[in-house]
């Protein structure tokens, strides 16, 4: 089997040598082109919720999107203490998407800004059985351990390019099965993220690719072949 790059979360076009989960916002879900060009996640981002009416419309679109075979995950969804969106509305939106995740048997790609305790509390309170993937992780090793212990995976992006960052230091200590790599909305090749991760973990690029392909197959319960790309 060919060892290609897995880009677990991106807002950009997917590289030819990568398998991507492209982020799709609820307002874009009417565009079938977004859903026919490869794997995607769909969700209601906490930045873009104006009121209850807007939220209900987007949740309705999301319910339709998750039935598409290329929709592998809910998200990005989560909580953000730096956005102007009403906190109660954020919590409501996130809770609804947790329930959609459970009903559709799909993982959630999590957006979290300064709301780690709340994310952990909801993870345990809801007794959810499907994986949560914390995208763009850049917090402490202690927080990483707490999240992983509740069944979450961590995803790392450009922050690991700075070997002094929290993200880089945490990545060094994780088990292979506990993480993914991503580009998010940054103008950087997924291959560059992989090269740095392989360097930090002192393994070959092919070994890292093999590990993350295994993680992808396990978390998303999907078979991959040389013809997948």
Q: What's the helix and strand layout?
A:
Layout: E1 5-10, E2 18-25, H1 32-36, E3 40-43, H2 52-65, E4 71-80, H3 87-104, E5 108-113, H4 116-125, E6 132-134, H5 141-149, E7 152-156, H6 166-173, E8 179-181, H7 190-201, H8 205-220
Overview of the structural elements:
With 229 residues, the chain is of the alpha/beta class. The protein is built from eight helices and eight strands, in the order E-E-H-E-H-E-H-E-H-E-H-E-H-E-H-H. It has helices at residues 32-36, 52-65, 87-104, 116-125, 141-149, 166-173, 190-201, 205-220, and strands at residues 5-10, 18-25, 40-43, 71-80, 108-113, 132-134, 152-156, 179-181. Strands 1-2-3-4-5-6-7-8 form an eight-stranded parallel β-sheet, sandwiched between helices. Strand 3 (40-43), helix 2 and strand 4 form a beta-alpha-beta unit. Helix 2 (52-65) runs parallel beside helix 3 and helix 7 (190-201) crosses helix 8. The radius of gyration is 17 Å and the shape is globular. Residues 32-36 have low confidence and may be disordered.
Helix content: 40-55%
**Proportion of residues in β-strands:** 15-25%
Number of domain units: 1
CATH superfamily: Metal-dependent hydrolases
How many helical elements?
Answer: 8
- Average residue-wise pLDDT: 91
């Amino acid at each position: 089997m060919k060892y290609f790059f897995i880009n677990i979360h991106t807002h950009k076009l997917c590289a030819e040598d990568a398998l991507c989960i492209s982020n799709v916002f609820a307002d874009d879900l009417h565009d079938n082109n977004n859903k026919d060009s490869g794997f995607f996640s769909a969700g209601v981002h906490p930045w873009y919720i104006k009121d209850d009416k807007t939220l209900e419309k987007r949740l309705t679109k999301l319910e339709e999107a998750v039935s598409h075979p290329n929709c592998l995950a809910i998200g990005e969804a989560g909580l953000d203490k730096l956005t102007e969106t009403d906190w109660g509305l954020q919590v409501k939106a996130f809770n609804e998407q947790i329930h959609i995740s459970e009903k559709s048997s799909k993982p959630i790609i999590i957006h979290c800004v300064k709301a780690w305790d709340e994310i952990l509390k909801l993870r345990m309170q809801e007794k959810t059985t499907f994986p949560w993937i914390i995208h763009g992780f850049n917090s402490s090793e202690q927080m990483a351990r707490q999240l992983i212990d509740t069944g979450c995976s961590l995803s790392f992006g450009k922050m690991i390019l700075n070997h002094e960052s929290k993200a880089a230091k945490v990545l060094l200590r994780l088990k292979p099965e506990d993480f993914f790599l991503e580009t998010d909305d940054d103008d950087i090749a997924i291959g560059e993220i992989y090269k740095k991760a392989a360097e930090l973990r002192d393994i070959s690029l092919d070994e890292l690719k093999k590990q993350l392909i295994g993680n992808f197959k396990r978390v998303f319960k999907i078979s991959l072949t040389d013809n997948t790309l």
